[in-house]
Amino acid sequence: MTKKAGHAGVKKATSPGLRGRIWIDGEEGTFLGYGRIILLERIREHGSITRAAKSMEMSYRHAWELVDSMNRQSARPFVELATGGKGGGGARLTTDGEKAVRFFWKFYGDFQGFLDKEKKVLDKFMNDKEKT
Amino acid sequence: MTKKAGHAGVKKATSPGLRGRIWIDGEEGTFLGYGRIILLERIREHGSITRAAKSMEMSYRHAWELVDSMNRQSARPFVELATGGKGGGGARLTTDGEKAVRFFWKFYGDFQGFLDKEKKVLDKFMNDKEKT
DNA sequence: TATCGTAATATACCAAAGGGAATAACGAAA
DNA sequence: TTTCGTTATTCCCTTTGGTATATTACGATA
Question: Mind giving me the DSSP string for A32-70?
Fold first, then answer.
């Protein structure tokens, strides 16, 4: 049995390791998180929720709900939706959406740095314990 | 309807805020996390899994599983269990358990500091966005 | 006006996690 | 040897988050 990762991109380690998740809360709960950011990037890449969802093995329904949630919680939408028209419509990342993506990755990078730093403390702690 | 907090101690904020969870992974997945640490403290306080679980509105079954998981994943058990005997038995935090608790709170405190620091970056970002 | 692939929405279904309750096992002390 | 409250274990139920599927709405373009 292959153990399924609990959350997008978060894999299991072989031995004691520091893990964490970070996100930004809005009025309705989660506003921005790792999975949502990936989704935004896929939308930018594919131009539609349908294909973006497919590309990351997410159901369209779930993807649409995430996009809707982000659009509702941000002052201006992150994703511009078009229904009907050429190609049946589509989805486009707005400049606000772009900014959100960039901001989150900065945040995320800082967090990874934090974890790396703390990892050393953990290793030291584990050594001390062994010696007891 | 009152929205239930997603996880122990993690409350909802009124406006955009940074949130996160950290934990330590072991061979079987989660090894140490916020809820497990609270549980260890309650066990130290009450001397039994039963009363510890009750004190934090957790089912005995769940609490036992968490304790068992921690004991299996640590070189030496964090909780010493006694079945039968005076008072029917009980649970006692070992010195390794004590150390784990202290270590986690240090880790946790650092993380809170990290979030506070990043919060300022977020606020700045939000202002910039408004001005656009 | 007919077409096309998408957004938008509703319904049914599924699986995992956890809760609750019931019961057996246990062993020191009276 | 009986008692006692706990650990240990099992079974069933509910909840929950998500998938799968089906249907409707849409509107630029040919």
Answer: EEHHHHHHHHHHHHHSSHHHHHHHTT--HHHHHHHHHHH
B25 contacts on A by Cβ (under 8 Å) = 12-13, 16-19
Q: Where are the domains of chain B?
A: 30-131
**Amino acid A84 CA to nucleotide D25 C1' distance, rounded Å:** 8
Task: State pTM to two decimals.
Answer: 0.86
Looking at CATH, the fold of the domain delimited by A32-126 is given as Arc Repressor Mutant, subunit A (1.10.10)
Residue among A13, A23, A75 minimizing CB distance to B25 = A13
**pLDDT beyond 80 at B6:** no
Strand D interface, A 41-70, C-beta < 7 A:
57-62
Mean pLDDT of B24-37: 94
* pLDDT of B129 above 80: no
Per-residue confidence (pLDDT) for residue B10, from 0 to 100? 39
Q: How far B110 CA lies from chain A's nearest CA (Å)? A: 9
CA B25 from centroid of its chain's CA atoms:
13
Which CATH code of 3.20.20.70, 1.10.10.10, 1.25.10.10, 3.30.40.10 fits the domain covering B30-131? 1.10.10.10
